[in-house]
Design a protein that fits this description.
Layout (H helix, E strand, L loop, with lengths): L1 E7 L3 H13 L5 E4 L16 E2 L9 H11 L6 H20 L25 E2 L5 H13 L5 E4 L2 E7 L19 E6 L4 E12 L10 E2 L8 H8 L4 E2 L4 E8 L6 E2 L6 H4 L3 E3 L19 H15 L4 E4 L5 H7 L1 H9 L9 E10 L2 E3 L11 E3 L4 E2 L12 H19 L24 H17 L6 H24 L4 H22 L25
Parallel strand pairs: 1-2, 1-8, 2-5, 8-17, 9-12, 16-18
Antiparallel strand pairs: 3-4, 6-7, 7-8, 10-16, 11-15, 13-14, 14-15
Length: 532
């Protein structure tokens, strides 16, 4: 298969990019690949909303920029922050014009929410399913363009570079170039090649590297791992954001139900096992402090009291407003026997968002020629050491637009590479025991949760790296000997992501933002990114 523009991932980043390219280049072909169903993305599970300055009477670009910089704890790129905040307003208008329906007050004005780290009410939302509303809007818009082909059940295995032509390439090789991808056609169980002129990686996050995460099962860090194997630059992977308030359900692991930060913005109060409101002991902003602070405070309270969760008290909130604004949360709590008007909601931190990823410049270009990165899998410099709530959907839209502007300028000067060899599966056999994959995944998630969580130490990181080395050796041996499966590819990608997180954490000899190491409790005077 050949395509002018190849998009890996069907979340807000990939779909926005594809729409813009299709409209501007009606004579070009755009192919979107997704490994499951097109709507199953991290975007779909985003509850809170989109942060943007729309009420200029009370809010300003300067305030949003300052809030983002404060949350990022000294590591944001100020140029990128200004770009996203200022250009984000136009991107929000676009998604509204495409049909996204954000909640409004009776007056007709947008009902703006407030979340941790924000100094003003500026979050546009659709009840507590904003991401789903945006995803559905984009998928409907995609159908209007005949030059867009959206293919489900195609698992991208590797990015094709000069390496596949027989050349030896390293991180320092100049002009590494992307020629397309090898994909596993899950319906035919066969590896195919797709040759492209421009490729956009928009594969979302990597929350499944941890035992409990708000991310869906597809969030296995595929784009980051593939780019790293292709010798692309990866940045700041140690900054994993744990959402402070995932619903705690005893004995459950995997995807946890998210209790959006907007609940605290509307008056929800965190309480410990004794019913005490504890956030005032940790930060003057109390329950609306940035996520890194709230997550560490909850972690500390759990350790002090020997509990597996704390509580979110919504009993004093306007219940009619709660049901209207958070119907999804209300329904979920009710289904497990929690009456939010009378009972506290048990919550605990869960892996939520990767602030690092594929190093991308202000136009979304990676270090590999003709390979762009956008959305959660990218590290643009917006989030720094900690993402400000609801900035992620905004970033995805702004950088999808910038990737589009840059890539359409270059498309006519790029030729298809006709010399790409077919995938060689010679000497491999079907796996005899799936337990070799599933058990390794459990080991990986457990060691990352126990050793590389909210609070870290040098000893824990060292232990994690030793165990990752063993998992890597065993999995690569299995990969060489057996035919490719999505389960094996995801395990391989998650081990790579785990390695990148641990290695980056070992390089950072300080505590900053989401990375807290008790052996280096203070901040270093040397403020720098970790690039691998």
């Amino acid at each position: 298969m050949k395509t002018d523009f190849l998009v890996i991932g069907s979340g807000i980043a990939g779909l926005t990019y594809a729409l813009k390219v299709a409209r501007d280049c009606p004579d070009k072909s755009i192919t979107i690949l997704t490994k499951t169903e097109s709507e199953e993305t991290n975007t779909k599970y985003a509850q809170g909303g989109v942060a943007g300055v729309t009420d200029f009477a009370k809010d300003s670009f300067e305030k949003h920029i300052e809030d983002t910089l404060v949350a990022g704890d000294g590591l944001c790129n100020p140029e990128v922050v200004e770009i996203v905040v200022k250009e984000g307003v136009e991107r929000i208008k676009e998604i509204i014009n495409w049909g996204a329906d954000f909640d409004k007050e009776n007056s007709g004005e947008y009902a703006l929410g407030k979340e941790g780290g924000h100094s003003e009410f500026r979050i546009l939302h659709h009840k507590d399913v904003t991401g789903k509303e945006i995803e559905n809007t984009l998928l409907e818009e995609i159908e209007k363009f005949p030059n867009i082909q959206l293919i489900n059940h195609y698992f991208v295995v590797d990015i094709i570079t000069q390496h596949h032509l027989g050349y030896l390439i390293t991180k320092s090789t100049p002009d590494i170039e992307c020629f397309g991808v090898y994909v596993l056609n899950l319906q035919k169980n066969k590896i195919e090649k797709i040759i492209s002129k421009i490729t956009l990686v928009a594969t979302g996050g990597n929350g499944q590297v941890y035992r409990t995460t708000t991310n869906p099962s597809i969030a296995t860090g595929d784009g980051v791992a593939m780019t790293y194997r292709a010798k692309g630059r990866i940045e700041n992977m140690e900054f994993i954001q744990f959402h402070p308030t995932a619903l705690y359900e005893a004995g459950k692991s995997g995807q946890a139900f998210l209790i959006t930060e907007a609940v605290r913005g509307d008056g929800g109060i965190l309480r410990n096992a004794h019913g005490e409101a504890f956030m005032e002991n940790y930060d003057e902003r109390k329950d609306l402090a940035p996520r890194d602070i709230v997550a560490r405070a909850i972690d500390q309270e759990m350790k002090i009291n020997g509990t597996e969760h704390v509580f979110l008290d919504c009993t004093k909130m306007n219940q009619e407003k709660f049901v209207h604004h958070f119907p999804n949360i209300y329904e979920k709590c009710t289904s497990i026997g929690i009456d939010v008007s009378k009972q506290f909601i048990p919550v605990a931190p869960a892996a939520h968002y990767s602030c690092g990823g594929i190093k991308a410049d202000v136009w979304g270009r990676s270090s590999i020629k003709n390979l762009y990165a956008c959305g959660e899998c990218a590290s643009t410099g917006l989030h720094g050491a900690n993402r400000l709530a609801s900035n992620s959907l905004l970033e995805a839209m702004v950088f999808a637009h910038r990737c589009y502007l840059d890539s359409v300028k270059n498309i006519d000067s790029i030729q298809f590479n006709e010399g790409i060899p077919d995938w060689n599966a010679k000497g491999t056999n079907a796996p005899k025991e799936m337990i070799l994959i599933t058990q390794s995944l459990k080991e990986l998630q457990l060691l990352m949760t126990d050793y590389v969580g909210i609070v870290r130490t040098n000893v824990r990181l060292e232990r994690a790296m030793k165990r990752l080395d063993l998992l890597h050796i065993e999995t690569e041996k299995l990969y060489q000997a057996t035919s490719v499966s999505p389960q094996l590819c995801e395990l391989r990608n998650l081990i790579t992501v785990g390695y990148l997180i641990v290695k980056s954490a070992q390089f950072r000899h300080e505590s900053r933002g989401l990375h807290f190491n008790t052996d280096y409790p203070g901040k270093s005077d040397l403020v720098q990114n970790v690039v691998l």
